[in-house]
Specification:
Shape: globular
Strand content: 25-35%
Number of strands: 7
Radius of gyration: 16 Å
Distance between the termini: 47 Å
Largest sheet: 7 strands, antiparallel
Helix content: 25-40%
CATH class: Mainly Beta
Order of helices and strands: EHHEEEEEEHH
CATH superfamily: Jelly Rolls
CATH architecture: Sandwich
């Protein structure tokens, strides 16, 4: 897990902090609320080809792409790694890991050098406990994102299904 190279976000440039305002999960937060969240986040860089996490790993943090590019890979039935998505600035990955305790459902690696901001599950739980209004806004953002992803997946799945007779 490259997250071990992390440093607190609040010690970094305003540009990194501003990049978080473009992430849909934080849409509902005002500047004061976002400054509270930032105190619970870390930042790290990944080089091209470096893995952020692998399918099956234990997941306990969500990543937000501040800059750069990631690719999401999933194993096919034949065992081949297939790129299923490319994520650029303003996107997130691993949202389910702050909500559930299941292993990672895909592999993520840097396509280009990337700067990532992370929020660990325990930090998110702390936000929910100490700042429930902020936590609820983030949960709504995560719920909306997961709902949109499920709708996209359902739309794609129908193209591969055989008609029921």
């Amino acid at each position: 897990m490259v997250e071990t190279k992390a440093t607190p976000v609040e010690k970094h440039s305003a540009a990194i902090i501003d990049s978080l305002t473009n992430i849909p999960i934080f849409d509902r937060l005002n500047a004061t609320e976002l400054s509270v969240v930032i105190k619970h986040m870390n930042l790290f860089d990944v080089d091209p080809g470096e893995y952020v996490f692998k399918e099956g790993d234990e997941g306990d943090y969500v990543c937000f792409v501040a800059n750069g590019s990631l690719e999401v890979l999933k194993r096919s039935e034949k065992g081949d790694a297939v790129v299923i998505a490319t994520l650029n600035s303003g996107r997130s990955i691993g949202e389910m890991s702050v909500v559930d305790h299941f292993p990672r459902s895909a592999t993520v690696r840097a396509r280009k050098k990337a700067t990532l901001v992370t929020l660990k599950r325990r930090e998110f739980d702390s936000l929910l406990e100490k700042h429930p209004t902020i936590g609820i806004k983030i949960l709504k953002g995560i719920s909306l994102l997961l709902s949109q992803n499920l709708r996209k997946t359902s739309s794609r799945l129908v193209d591969y299904m055989l008609p029921i007779t």
